[in-house]
Amino acid sequence: MPLPKPPSKLGSLVKASSTPATTEAVNVHPPVKARAASAKPSQARPAQKAQIAPMTASPVRDLLPATGPVGEVLVAAASPSENAKAPRKPAKRSATQAPEVSKLFMLDTNVLMHDPTSLFRFEEHDVYLPMVTLEELDGHKKGMSEVARNARQASRELDALVAGVEGSIETGIRLDHTGHREARGRLFFQTKAHEARLPEALPQGKADNQILAVLQALTLANPDRPVVLVSKDINMRVKARALGLHAEDYANDKTLDDADLLYSGVLPLPADFWEQQTQSVESWQQGGHTYYRLQGPLVSAMLVNQAVYWESPSATPLYARVKEIRASTAVLQVIRDYSHQKNGVWGVTARNREQNFALNLLLDPEVDFVTLTGQAGTGKTLLALAAGLHQVLEDRRYNEIIMTRVTVPVGEDIGYLPGTEEEKMSPWMGALDDNLEVLNQAGGASQGGEWGRAATQELIRSKIKIKSMNFMRGRTFLNKFVIIDEAQNLTPKQMKTLITRAGPGTKLICMGNIAQIDTPYLSEGSSGLTYVVDRFKGWKHSGHITLARGERSRLADYATEIL
Question: What is the pTM of this model?
Answer without folding.
Answer: 0.67
